[in-house]
Every structure is written in structure tokens, then in C-alpha cells.
Amino acid sequence: MRRRYTSLHVEREYIEQLRTIGMTRGAERWEGWLDAPITEEEVWRMLKGVKRNKAPGPDGLSMGFFKKNWNWLKNDIVEILN
Known about the structure:
The chain has helices spanning 12-20, 40-48, 63-68, 70-81. It is an all-alpha fold.
């Protein structure tokens, strides 16, 4: 998904607007954030925050399936997301 936004650029005028309303810390740091690869830790944190028995996705698999089988699935999932 991040590949769709590779040309995203933070305009300097927006950074200045953020500064005027007090949102100055680190605005420049976000410029390249979407280009960074998704990490195993990011995906695992997301999975830990989701209830196991939530409705399954279009593939019919619940979050519990992904949590229980994380050790076997993690490399493939991270590769797919990147």
C-alpha cells in the first residue's frame, strides 16, 4: 500500500501552517515515512491490538488465525505488505 504514495511530498507551506497552530515537532520527519518498509514489529503490534474473534476478512480467516500462526506466517505477511 505504501508504494501507492511514493510520490507523496509534504509541501513547505503546510509545514508552516502546522507550525502556526503549534504542531511543529517533527513535521519534516514524516516526509519519507511512507517510503519505509513495513516491519514485522509493526504488523505484530497491530495484530495484538485486534480482538481474536472479530469478523473474518474476505479470505474467511479471523485475526485469531493470524495471531495463533504468526510464527509461520510473519515473513510472508510482511513480504506481501511491502
